[in-house]
Amino acid sequence: MLTLSVDLRAGTGPWQWCEQGDGCWVRGADRIHPLANAALEARAVTDGARR
């Protein structure tokens, strides 16, 4: 589960990974990060390709 703070009208440029805190994707003032909740299990899955 993710929490989002994204302004679709103003967003430009690439998303970048931020290691601070629980880790999140950032683009200017926009943020996407995992929701911290004891009832949820966090997993990240990738196919190994970078796009």
Summarize the structure.
Helices cover 0% and strands 31% of the residues. The chain has 51 residues and is mainly beta. The protein is globular.
Walk me through the structure.
The protein has no helices and 4 strands. The mean pLDDT is 78. The protein is globular, with a radius of gyration of 12 Å. With 51 residues, it is mainly beta. 0% of the residues lie in helices and 31% in strands. The protein has a 4-stranded antiparallel β-sheet with strand order 1-4-3-2, with no helix packed on it.
Low-confidence stretches: none
Count of helical regions: 0
Structural class: mainly beta
Tell me the major beta sheet. Answer: 4 strands, antiparallel
Q: Could you give the order of strands across the largest sheet?
A: 1-4-3-2
The rough form would be described as: globular
Helix coverage percent? under 10%
Task: Give the amount of beta strand, in percent.
Answer: 25-35%
Q: Using the CA coordinates, give the radius of gyration.
A: 12 Å
